[in-house]
Amino acid sequence: MFAVPDETTHRTKVADWLELKAIASPDARVAFGTLVSATALTENKENQDVADDDAHKDDLVLSAQGEIARRLKNIGDDYPFRIDDKGRALEFRTPVSKVGSVYLFCLFLSHAFDRTIVPASLAPEITNRIRDLFQACSTVAAGGYVQGPAVSFGFPRPDGAEFLKALRRVYKLFGDGRPCKKPRKASPPKVKDNGIDIIAWRPSIDNLPAKPYLIGQVASGADWVDKSVKSDREQFHKYWFVEQPASQPEDAMFMPFGLEPENEKQEKDYEALLKDHMQYVGHKFGNLFYRDRIARHLAHGLQLIADGEQGIERHADLAEVVEWVEEYTERLKAA
């Protein structure tokens, strides 16, 4: 059903393979030995050193276990998988929490077009609505991260408002900066969102400007590496405001994938490699919200909403995310 990873596959995808196998298994678990045996079946044994082969298999399992342990640490109790008490298998835990469903939503999105593991016949269908639901998840996560209101500004907007009307509404709520009242003379006739998908902030204690402020872009596909909100945000502030916000913006990119730094097989210190990878990514994209961070900060957002915060948009759409995840999970089990 799923393509079998080998020693050339990034540990992030090997861990994903184990998660998907656990979901699809009748007993909701996959033994780590299954990874070793499945890999052995796909290899050509001729002229292969047995000791070296065993070492490669051990490394494959250990690196995947390390990635799973990192996910558990990052996400906490909402992570929908656990390594069993004997350390021999990965278990899919049910019932899945709302946060866990968003994690699975990101996992499934990650393999919608990537054929490394999931074949085209089993890949989920990704419609514009599904992409929009990922923006909903990202909006709630942004609110949890800043600990305050978060607006889903990306087109199409939930209320259908045109660009300048939506812009004025958001910055009236924000309380910092004055957008244009009318379109600029040379502005495009149909501006959608100017590359800005999420606007979030933490209210100041005195309700005055100069407060924590996030400008986010959402990318549900692998082409996120070709995007960056930084240039869009700079043009957005300079062109569409008669008075720019004094609050200093934090650029952010939201994507559903795990982290896959290059040179993984050459670097022995994986944590150091991850740190350097995020330095590279951060300078280009701003703060990166990948699968683990989205799940953890979405939990913070839901807690904030439960405590009375009314300014985080799109949280009602999470029910549709949960339903979609349940349906696709059943499809995996039936395959």
Q: What would you say this structure looks like, in words?
A:
With 335 residues, the chain is α+β, with helices and mostly antiparallel strands. The protein folds into two domains: 11-94, Arc Repressor Mutant, subunit A (Orthogonal Bundle), CATH 1.10.10; 128-319, no CATH class. It has ten helices and ten strands. It has helices at residues 11-24, 32-41, 50-75, 98-110, 128-146, 163-174, 229-240, 270-285, 291-306, 318-334, and strands at 29-31, 81-83, 89-92, 150-152, 178-179, 198-201, 213-218, 241-243, 249-254, 287-289. A five-stranded mixed sheet has the order 4-6-7-9-10, with helices on both faces. A hairpin with a 5-residue loop joins strand 2 and strand 3. Helix 4 (98-110) packs across helix 10 and helix 5 (128-146) packs across helix 9 (291-306). The longest helix is centred in the N-terminal third of the chain and has 26 residues, at 50-75. The chain starts with 10 loop residues before the first helix and ends with a helix. The mean pLDDT is 93.
How is the topology of this model organized?
Layout: H1 11-24, E1 29-31, H2 32-41, H3 50-75, E2 81-83, E3 89-92, H4 98-110, H5 128-146, E4 150-152, H6 163-174, E5 178-179, E6 198-201, E7 213-218, H7 229-240, E8 241-243, E9 249-254, H8 270-285, E10 287-289, H9 291-306, H10 318-334
Parallel strand pairs: 7-9, 9-10
Antiparallel strand pairs: 1-3, 2-3, 4-6, 5-8, 6-7
Number of strands: 10
The major beta sheet can be summarized as:
5 strands, mixed
Report how far apart the termini are.
Answer: 7 Å
Strand order of the largest sheet: 4-6-7-9-10
How many domains? The number is 2
- Principal-axes geometry comes out as elongated
Helical run tally: 10
Decide which structural class fits the backbone: alpha+beta
